[in-house]
Design brief:
two-stranded antiparallel ribbon, alpha+beta, 295 residues, 28% helix, 11 strands, binds iron/sulfur cluster
């Protein structure tokens, strides 16, 4: 596998407003997510625990699913969601606030949802190859190539974003897929207290989850046991409290970007120098790891 990622960030940015016909959709499978995030990065339980240990519990967001025809299901607030027994199943990924970016080879800065860890100036990942770098990102688009599924890189190419996928041989050391029975308690979790989810479905759909909503799911994921539906209640409560109390540079930056952002896809009302100053103020000076830029 060989990629040309410079100036792209197609797998880190929701670029649907730029090229709706070329961009894919997370809603295409037989279990559409309830939220509308693009390319959510599924995290393992250990990765979630790692973010929590680093004080980054405020960068995580849950994803629940509409049930496929053959799926078990449970009603939450009158909405049927995919379930394991009577417990809603969910994944956790990284939040995507609106940021001023010019991805996939474009040169006009626009407000687009982008991974909390994407440096908007260099379009590089702030945790690349670090301890918290998700395995999904480290191996992307290996699973797609293995399954002969379309990659984000090819979509970017189709949108006129330049040559991206230079060698499509999947890597030999791919991890297990994030979905499937083997993923239960590892990347797919079961929420043990569906009666406590009042209003959560509406807030997922309207992208308005509260800190407490997100923390509930972080707790349940960290309390989960691989291969099992059972949850360690003490571990769950402790992780939930830590996620709720998290106050990281990244969580604060999400709030700052969200407050400043214009409409989805709208050009930003400032130039590249102002973008750089703003990114330095809201991310770098607040504690974000730097990125090297492209040689
Ligand atoms: S963690 Fe890094 S590589 Fe993964 S989506 Fe976020 S910015 Fe992109
Ligand atoms: S979409 Fe492909 S080429 Fe673009 S940044 Fe992601 S992995 Fe690299």
């Amino acid at each position: 596998m060989e990629l040309r990622c410079e100036g792209c960030a197609g797998c880190c940015v929701d670029w649907r407003p730029l090229a709706p016909d070329a961009a894919g959709s997370d809603r295409a499978g037989d279990r559409p997510p309830l939220d509308d995030a693009y390319d959510l990065v599924p995290l393992t339980r250990d990765e979630v625990a790692g973010f929590l240990d680093d004080g980054l519990g405020d960068v995580l967001v849950p994803r629940l699913f509409e049930p496929a025809e053959r799926d078990e299901r449970v009603a939450v607030d009158g909405t049927e969601v995919a379930a394991a027994g009577d417990r809603p199943v969910f994944m956790l990924g990284l939040r995507k606030p609106p940021k001023p970016v010019a991805p996939i080879g474009t040169d006009e800065l626009r407000w687009l949802d982008a991974c909390v860890f994407l440096d908007p100036t260099t379009l590089q990942c702030r945790i690349h190859d670090e301890d918290r770098y998700p395995r999904t990102c480290a191996t992307y688009p290996g699973q797609n190539l293995e399954l002969d599924a379309e990659t984000e890189c090819e979509r970017v190419e189709d949108a006129g974003g330049g040559d991206r996928l230079l060698d499509d041989e999947p890597p030999a050391d791919l991890p297990a897929p994030a979905f499937g029975p083997q993923a239960l308690g590892t990347t797919v979790f079961a929420y043990p207290d569906p009666d406590g989810l009042d209003g959560v479905i509406d807030r997922i759909r309207s992208d308005s989850l509260t800190d407490d909503d997100r923390a509930r799911f972080v707790g349940a994921a960290v309390g989960s046991r691989p291969g099992s539906l059972s949850v360690d209640r003490d571990r769950m409560a402790e992780a939930r409290a830590r996620a709720r109390d998290a106050d990281s540079w990244a969580g604060r930056a999400i709030g700052e970007w969200t407050d400043r952002a214009g409409a989805d896809g709208e050009p930003v009302p400032f130039d590249a120098d102002s973008q750089e100053r703003l990114v330095r103020e809201l991310e770098d000076d607040a504690g974000a790891p730097g990125t090297p830029g492209w040689d």
